[in-house]
Design goal:
six-stranded parallel beta sheet; Rossmann fold; seven-stranded parallel beta sheet; alpha/beta; 38% helix; 2 domains; 13 helices; globular
Length: 404
């Protein structure tokens, strides 16, 4: 059985031929599914040059059906006439098509798969519609974004009504479910059992190290973070913040500059450091160097995979009560939730964690339990069981089957 996966995350080949992916979360997802198939074919943008260090795909049965490199829909659609023949060749090559959504190639791959009689399944990991209020577009760009979002929303719903569909978090599952066509809730993750830490507490030194891991773009709410740090410093706390992640496109670069400008204006530039992207394999061990994790994200998320990464590493979480996050984070049990991502609310939640060792230890212990239930191994086992039974296909079984 050959699985074909369609997504927009760029790949490239290292000098030794290894397949690498820029962020690492998708590479790990591919590796988690690979044991269930004879071959996995990735229909993804392929760059001719390396984009940073990247994260390698470890499975030996993963190959490419490359698309021309594109950063988003503005680059994808002008190249559509050249990409359609590649999508046809890809769909003919595989037995089962998996679209990870949102991505502009999904609707075309899905239609082609149906024409060729290939069974399909979807994984919806984000919500374009919810992003509308967070993007800084004006005038014609705002109108074009709204038109494109409406087009993609119709596409996703049309596909979900005709295919086995998984969604990242209860919010997305509810949004795309219809009578007689349920959507299966899942929680995307990057962590395995081997990644679990063992420490019982953080904030044991006077200096408190805060961590944010996120793409830098307006939907993530990162602009308030210099104000959060300023409030903590004014409250007598010796804190610093590292923001790890790449700036995404022109809006991301604007957001990065605004964060740096705001930090300088508040006099905390030496305490707020933007570290850029760090490959996932190097990043996961580094979580353990930090005391608290903060992600003041806005709407448009499913469930950010970085929350499970922080739990796995024993780092207590402060994040926002939006989208699918409350389906993973229970306030006061395995993290703290703020109702609005304001500097005041976020800083107050961090102060609670710094001051209350019992609360920290409870969040860490319960975070480990949450992480154990949502490892890559467990997620893949559950999904592939549903794919096999729902689509009537026979899959390989891993040599040591993970608990579902």
């Amino acid at each position: 059985m050959t699985l074909g996966i369609v997504y927009h995350m760029p790949f490239w080949r290292a000098a030794d031929g290894t397949l690498c992916e820029v962020e690492g979360s998708f590479a790990r997802y591919v590796d988690s599914l690979a044991p269930y198939f004879d071959e996995v074919v990735l229909c993804v943008p392929v760059s001719r040059t390396m984009k940073g260090e990247g994260t390698a795909v470890r499975s030996k049965n993963v190959t490419l059906a490359p698309m021309t490199d594109f950063a988003g829909p503005a680059q994808f659609y002008p190249r559509l006439a050249r990409l359609l023949p590649r999508l046809f060749r890809f769909a003919r090559r595989v037995d089962l098509v998996h679209c990870r959504i949102p991505t502009p190639a999904a609707i075309f791959a899905f239609v082609i798969a149906r024409l060729l009689g290939r069974p399909t399944f979807l994984l919806v990991v984000g919500d374009l519609e919810a992003l509308g209020g967070t993007l800084p577009y004006r005038g014609a760009k705002r109108w074009l974004w709204r038109a494109y979002t409406a087009f993609e929303e119709r596409n996703v719903q049309w596909m979900a009504e005709r295919s086995l569909t998984f969604a990242n978090g209860a919010g997305l599952a509810h949004k795309h479910a219809r009578a007689g066509r349920p959507v299966i809730e899942t929680r995307t993750t990057t962590v395995g059992l081997a990644d679990l830490a063992v420490r019982e507490d953080s904030c044991v030194d006077r200096s408190i190290r805060l961590l944010t891991v996120s793409r830098i773009d307006p939907r993530k709410g990162l602009r308030i973070l210099p104000d959060v740090v300023k409030r903590l410093v004014d409250g007598g706390f010796d804190v610093s913040l590292d923001i790890v992640g790449p700036a995404v496109g022109a809006p991301g670069e604007t957001e990065r500059r605004d964060i740096e400008t705001r930090a300088r204006a508040l006099g905390v530039a030496d305490r707020v450091r933007l570290r850029g992207a760090i490959p996932l394999d190097r990043l996961l061990p580094r979580y353990r160097e930090y005391d608290l994790f903060v992600l003041p994200t806005l709407a448009g998320e499913g469930i950010p995979r970085v929350l499970l990464e922080a739990m796995t590493s024993g780092v207590p979480i402060v994040t926002t009560r939006v989208a699918g996050i409350p389906g993973l984070v229970t306030d006061g049990m395995n993290g703290l939730l703020v109702n609005q991502p304001t500097a005041e609310a976020t800083a107050n939640a961090l102060v609670r964690l710094i001051a209350d060792a019992g609360l920290r230890r409870r969040l860490i212990a319960n975070g480990y339990e949450t992480a154990r239930a949502h490892t890559l191994e467990a997620q893949a086992a559950r999904m592939m069981h549903d794919v096999s039974s729902g689509l009537g296909v026979t899959l390989r079984q891993p040599a040591v089957a993970p608990a579902a």
